[in-house]
Amino acid sequence: MSQIAILAGLVLGLALGVIASATGNETLIAIAEASAPFGAAFMRAIQMVVIPLVGVTVFVGVAKIGDPRKLGRLGGASVGFFWLTTLPAIVLGMIVMRVALAFAPPVTPPTVAAEVASELPGIVDFLVNLIPRNPFEAAAAGSLLPIIVFTVLFAAATTTLPADKREPLISLGESVSDVLIRLVHWVLLTAPLGVFGLAAPVAARTGIAMLQNLAVFIIAVVAGLFIFMAIIFLPAVRFVGKMPVGKFIKGTIGTYAMGFSTTSSVATLPVMFDDADRLGLSKETSNLVLPLAASINRPGSALFQGAAVIFLASVYDVSVTPAAIAGAVLATFLAAMTVAPVPSASIMTMAPALDTVGIPLSALGIMLGIDRVPDMFRSATNVVGHLASATVVESLAGGEEADLDGTPGVKPDS
Fold first, then answer.
1. Max alpha carbon distance in the chain (Å)?
2. Is 0.85 topped by the overall pTM?
C-alpha cells in the first residue's frame, strides 16, 4: 500500500477529529467515534501477524550471521561496530525525544487507563521474566520480548549445527517469512481506512495538540539523526578509521542522497561501492562489510524507535520505569538488527518495545501515517553508517580478505 494513501487516511482522520473537537459538533464527533471499529480491526490484523513475523525475522537474521568466529577479523569487527553504534543510537533517540517533549503541548491520553499496563516489574523481575517458562505460552499471551530472547538463543544454537542440518531450518524460516510478508501486504491494503479509524477518534479527544505533538516528534527524530552522525560516525571515522572528516562527508554525499530517495540499503549498494572506491577503501573490505551492513546494520532505525517509545509513552501517559527502559532498549536493539523486509518495518517491529513499556499497540497506526519523512532520513543515516563501518573496519582489520556466505535480498530499511 502506498505511503501516500496511508498518509491521506491519517490526514483525513486527523482533520475530521480536529474539526469535531474545535467545533464541538455532535454529528462530527459521532462520525469520528463511529470510525473506531475500523481502526480496531486493522490493529487486530497487525497484531495477528506481528508476533510470528518478528520471531521468524529475528531467527533468520541471527541464524544467517553464522558463527562470528568464521567471519574472520573483518566480519567480527563489522558486527562489533554495528552493535556498538546501535546501542547509543537507541539511547540518543530517547534523550533527544525527552528534551523535545518540553516543546510539545500537553495532550489528553487517547486511551483509557485499562488499555495500558498498570504495573511494570522492577529490574530483577524484568531480568527473570526475560526467560519464558513456555515460549508458546508467552506467544499466546503476547509477551514479545521473552519470545525474542528465546528466538535469539534458538537461532544461536542453530548456527552451531552442521550445514546440512542448519540450512533447511534457515530455508524454512525464510519461506515462512515470505508468507508472513505477503500477509502483511494484504493487511496494509486496509491501512488507509484503518489509520483513519485510529486517528479520527484520537484527534476528536485531543484536538490540535496531537498535530503539534506529531510535528515535534518528526523534527526531533530528524535532528537526532544528524546529531548521531556528528557525534558517533564522524569521530569514529576520524579517530579510528584515520580518515579526514571532510573527505568522508564529501565521499558519502551520493550514498546519502540514494538512501534518502530509495529508503533501502540494498538498493543503495551500487552507489556505496562506488563511494567506497572514492574513499580509498579496499575491495576486500567493501565487498564483505557493505553487504553485511545492508543486511543487519540499522542505527537510524534504532534511533527512530527509541524516540518513538518515549514519544508514545508521553502521548499515552504511560510511566516509564528503569526496567521498562531496559526492556525497550533490548527489544529495540534486537529488532533494529533484524529489520523485516516489509514497508515501514521499523513501525511493525516496535511492537515488542511498546509491549515492554505498556503502550497500546494501537499507537502503531498513528506512526504508520507519518512515517514517510522519518523513513527517508533514517535510511540515509543507515547507509552513511554502512560506509562509516567499512572505513573503521578497514583501519582495524587491515583489509583482510574474508568471505561471507549468503547475500542480502532487496528490502527496505523501514
1. 70
2. no
